[in-house]
């Protein structure tokens, strides 16, 4: 496998809190997190990308995706699922999350930081493509449903809750860093909520 142009790029994930954007609506936060996910999607889909780069990206993509999906489900999805006009779009999104979760848990069982086999390569690529499609649809159809059915003040309040859940997730993940390192899972990247 050839090395990609990105091989030497530094993964620039750093922690940001909602204190930086208290009035940011949830759709803006989600879109910003999609941007972070898309950086890894690009690498994971690239057959020419270096293995060590894919390993690093997958190691941060999996927890970041879990944080993002969990926060969506517990905030904006939960709200829109109750609104008739947005129900189909929300159930569609939840179904895509379930498909992604199953691939995430399969990849988590693999020691991909040490061994990057064909199965990991293939599953990481499928996950990346699935999330790419999902994020695009979310930004087009789902965001439209949210804007049609919720006032800006509600979207801001949901945004605060969303970012708070992301911080809780990151705190839980940080507590697990030590045991994972002891099991030889290697370096863990620092995540940012966006
Ligand atoms: Fe989603
Ligand atoms: Fe999303």
Explained architecture:
By secondary structure, this protein is mainly alpha-helical. The chain has one domain (24-182): nmb1532 protein domain like (Four Helix Bundle (Hemerythrin (Met), subunit A)), CATH 1.20.120.520. The chain has five helices and no strands. The protein has helices at residues 26-45, 51-80, 87-108, 118-149, 152-182. The longest helix has 32 residues, at 118-149. It is globular. Mean pLDDT is 87; it is low at 1-18 and 184-190. One fe (ii) ion (FE2) is lined by residues 30, 34, 68, 72, 135, 138.
CATH topology: Four Helix Bundle (Hemerythrin (Met), subunit A)
What is the number of E strands? 0
- Percent of residues in beta strands? under 5%
Order of helices and strands: HHHHH
* Tally of separate domains: 1
Helix coverage percent of residues?
55-70%
- C-alpha end-to-end distance: 31 Å
Structural class: mainly alpha
Tell me the CATH superfamily: nmb1532 protein domain like
The distinct bound ligands, ions and cofactors come out as: fe (ii) ion
- CATH first level: Mainly Alpha
Describe the sheet with the most strands. Answer: none
Instruction: Indicate the mean pLDDT.
Output: 87
What would you call the shape?
globular
Q: Given the structure, what is the number of helices?
A: 5
CATH architecture: Up-down Bundle
Low-confidence stretches: 1-18, 184-190
Rg, Å, rounded: 17 Å
